[in-house]
């Protein structure tokens, strides 16, 4: 073998080395394509400080999902019971919330987008999202709200949707995404619960016909290892059933027919490993419904990134909010020892975290709500096998009057339990009123006696 032979050997080794390197970097890249951490959140006031982005960046999600109230675009007027413009009470004559001009909406979206923390997240994380009422443009608004066409454009600009995207031409911002390599795909379906929604308490539609047809196609489309359905409003918890008539919040529960249709669609699609994520309510919780698909349907609610129910009162009174939270009965909430508070709700700023361990056998899934330091405040961990039809057998007939946790709706609770929050509240008000009357009466008596005495003196 002469020198030329060595030369060829040398080249041969180089080429084999290069091929191996490229192939392994290819498989390396494929590994990287696996999505194993997704964060989500809602209810972020662009004018509030937003320290939570640091915790989200530290969690290092590959995808971040906005679930609505990504900005507060409308204006809230103060509570006014008396005077010319009354925003609450039975004699209310002025709306509590008013929409803003397009220019003002644009400014607010810009402020949210250029927040330094969020800007850092955007640099390395895929951002997707939908909207809720306040970024749609008006509190609790539905299909009747006329600025929706203009605001859809603004939301999609905020999310950096390409100019030629079909999402810019459709009525509403619903969309679906698939991440990850074959066999380990995560499908994310984002619903629009605003654009086509009938008035509250109409028991009409939330999604509208077009979106229903689209959703049916999405659910019956190619299989995925995990399917996440993002809804701005809660799907499983029906809070207003137990906080009414004091407080009523929006949820799929307020549209029972529409909610049943959603469950049936998922069941009929035979799609396993489906769960919901939601926002809107200014606290975090995990709820679970066992009687729809043959496996537990989870709904992880994270709300909000800046807005939270505890902020409504000064810090020394936060314990009252927690006490009230522990009074709200729930048939769906997931309760466990690891929750930060005994109610297993969390009324301080939080974000949602979805973590998949693809290397575990079987594959495991962690669904959590995390606080401003990235610590878990409520969470569940399961194997993907537990989210397959047949993993529970609760779909069998339930006798009327029977109570099953994670199955019986809140409205079937005995009324003393169902309305205990209202009962405690009105009792407290009654006691206060009574005390006030007694006190006033006593004061009048004393002062009269004194006046009489004073006259004679
Ligand atoms: C949710 O609560 C509301 C208010 O009480 C009630 O009208 C509705 O039927 C409930 N929905 C479900 C699914 O139980």
TrEMBL record:
It holds the Pfam family PhoD. The keyword Membrane applies. The keyword Ribonucleoprotein does not apply. Keywords: Membrane, Transmembrane, Transmembrane helix. InterPro entries: PhoD-like_MPP. It comes from the Eukaryota. Residues 42-291 form the PhoD-like phosphatase metallophosphatase domain. The chain crosses the membrane at residues 6-24, 423-446. This is PhoD-like phosphatase metallophosphatase domain-containing protein. It comes from Carya illinoinensis (Pecan). The lineage of its organism: Eukaryota, Viridiplantae, Streptophyta, Embryophyta, Tracheophyta.
């Amino acid at each position: 073998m002469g020198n030329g032979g060595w030369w060829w050997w040398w080249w041969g080794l180089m080429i084999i080395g290069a091929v191996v390197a490229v192939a392994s970097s290819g498989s390396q890249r494929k590994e990287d394509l696996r999505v194993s951490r997704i964060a989500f959140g809602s209810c972020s006031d662009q004018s509030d400080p937003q320290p939570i982005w640091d915790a989200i960046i530290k969690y290092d999600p590959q995808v971040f999902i906005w679930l609505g109230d990504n900005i507060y675009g409308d204006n809230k007027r103060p509570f006014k019971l008396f005077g010319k413009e009354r925003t609450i009470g039975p004699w209310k004559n002025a709306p509590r919330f008013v929409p803003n001009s397009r220019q003002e909406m644009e400014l607010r979206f810009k402020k949210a987008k250029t927040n330094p923390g969020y800007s850092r997240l955007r640099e390395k994380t895929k951002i997707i999202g939908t909207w809720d009422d306040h970024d749609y443009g008006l509190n609790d608004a539905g299909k009747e709200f006329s600025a929706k066409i203009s605001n859809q454009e603004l939301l999609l600009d905020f999310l950096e949707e390409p100019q030629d995207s079909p999402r810019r031409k459709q009525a509403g911002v619903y969309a679906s995404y698939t991440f990850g390599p074959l066999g380990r795909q995560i499908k994310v379906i984002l619903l629009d619960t605003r654009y086509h929604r009938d008035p509250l308490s109409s028991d009409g539609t939330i999604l509208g016909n077009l979106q229903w047809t689209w959703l049916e196609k999405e659910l019956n489309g190619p299989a995925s290892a995990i399917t996440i359905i993002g809804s701005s409003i809660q799907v499983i918890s029906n809070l207003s059933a137990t906080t009414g008539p004091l407080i009523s919040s929006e949820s799929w529960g307020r549209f029972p027919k529409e909610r049943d249709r959603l469950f049936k669609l998922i069941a009929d699609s035979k799609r396993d490993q489906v769960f919901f994520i939601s926002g809107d309510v200014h606290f975090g919780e995990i709820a679970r419904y066992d009687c729809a698909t043959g496996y537990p349907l989870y709904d992880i609610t994270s709300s909000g990134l800046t807005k939270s129910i505890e902020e409504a009162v000064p810090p020394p009174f936060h314990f009252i909010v927690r006490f009230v939270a522990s009074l709200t009965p729930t048939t769906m909430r997931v309760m466990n020892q690891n929750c930060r508070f005994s109610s297993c709700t969390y009324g301080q700023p939080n974000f949602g975290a979805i973590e998949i361990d693809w290397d575990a056998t079987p594959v495991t899934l962690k669904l959590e709500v995390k606080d401003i330091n990235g610590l878990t405040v409520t969470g569940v961990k399961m194997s993907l096998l537990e989210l397959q039809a047949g993993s529970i057998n609760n779909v069998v007939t339930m006798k009327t009057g029977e109570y099953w946790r994670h199955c019986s709706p809140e409205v079937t609770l005995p009324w003393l339990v169902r309305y205990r929050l209202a009962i405690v509240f009105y009792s407290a008000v009654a006691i206060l009123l009574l005390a006030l009357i007694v006190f006033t009466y006593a004061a009048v008596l004393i002062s009269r006696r004194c006046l009489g005495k004073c006259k004679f003196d």
